[in-house]
Design goal:
Length: 302
């Protein structure tokens, strides 16, 4: 059983919404990451139940993928919370450039939200009465941050490290470097030697050395043939959309998701038409038991 400091709670959410980390300190309350748009009412309900009569003072985003910030707008309306986002994303959020923010590129939704200030590498945050270091963590997302508390040996790793792997290395799909950056952040985590890791998805875990070995092995596998990363990305994007909708018209999905920038990039890397790639990914989800196909409908089994 993982024991966290008093005043710190993790709402483990699954794969459609990222985990949310709530801090209830004497002077301030704070939430790290807010989940996906369709789960925003649930996020608010979880925070309200935990805070009682107190309000949420601070909202921090590790990065701005839709599953980590989709509850921002609702929390801001309800609490008026001060919001911090990664510094490299400020211009895109201010202009609400959905292409730059990845929502158009992935076919995912996010309600427009604002921000009050930015976080960047080297910053310090006070959360739950503890001091946290802000560290840049490119790889999965070039602008992502992770948070480390030396006094407790706690790491909020976002999608840089899960108990079994890490998030899709999206930059590599469009000819940008991502594998090297992912290797570097895994090495940073190894040197930090945290006692407990709270990942973006999945339970908090303590056997960090074993998780790092699994992550490094997977990175070696993906980087040895970038087409593997492209296939994984396409499958993840389709699986995400299926989790959101629970049932999808395959023909409509081929049109909707197949036209997105990241699926198109994945198809080019694989030398496939987007429709062919999406059909392959749908069949792989069925084979894996994550979905079933009834005529034109792809139906989630999870």
């Amino acid at each position: 059983m993982i024991q966290l400091p008093a005043g710190m709670q993790v709402f483990e959410r699954g794969w459609l919404s990222s985990n949310n980390i709530l801090f209830i300190g004497e002077q301030q309350t704070a939430l790290v990451d807010s989940g996906y748009l369709s789960h925003a009412p649930q996020t608010l309900a979880l925070v309200q139940q935990a805070l009682g009569e107190r309000k949420l003072d601070l909202l921090v985003n590790t990065h701005l993928h839709s599953d980590h910030c989709g509850g921002n707008a609702l929390l801001q309306r309800h609490y008026g919370c001060h919001t911090l986002i990664p510094v490299a994303e400020t211009a895109a959020v201010a202009a609400w450039d959905e292409a730059a923010l990845s929502y158009a590129a992935t076919g995912q939704q996010c309600e427009r939200f604002g921000f009050d200030a930015a976080i960047q590498h080297g910053d310090s945050l006070q959360l739950g009465g503890m001091d946290w270091q802000v560290l840049a963590a490119p790889g999965h997302d070039p602008h992502s941050m992770i948070l480390y508390c030396p006094q407790e040996g706690l790491l909020i790793s976002a999608d840089a490290l899960w108990e079994n792997g890490f998030g899709v290395i999206f930059p590599e799909l469009e000819g940008e470097s991502g594998f090297a950056e992912q290797a570097a952040i895994l090495q940073v985590i190894r040197e930090l030697n945290p006692r407990i890791v709270i990942p973006g998805h999945g339970p908090a875990f303590g056997n960090v050395a074993a998780a790092l070995e699994r992550a490094e092995s997977r990175l070696d596998y993906l980087s040895a043939d970038p087409r593997r990363n492209a296939r994984n990305a396409a499958k993840v994007l389709l699986a995400f959309l299926l989790l959101e909708s629970q049932r999808l018209s395959l023909s409509a999905t081929l049109s909707q998701l197949g036209s997105t920038r990241l699926v198109s990039s994945s198809a080019r890397l694989l030398g496939l038409e987007t429709d062919a790639l999406m059909l392959q990914m749908a069949n792989e989800l069925v084979t894996a038991g994550a979905a079933r196909l009834e005529h034109d409908m792809l139906i989630s089994t999870r």
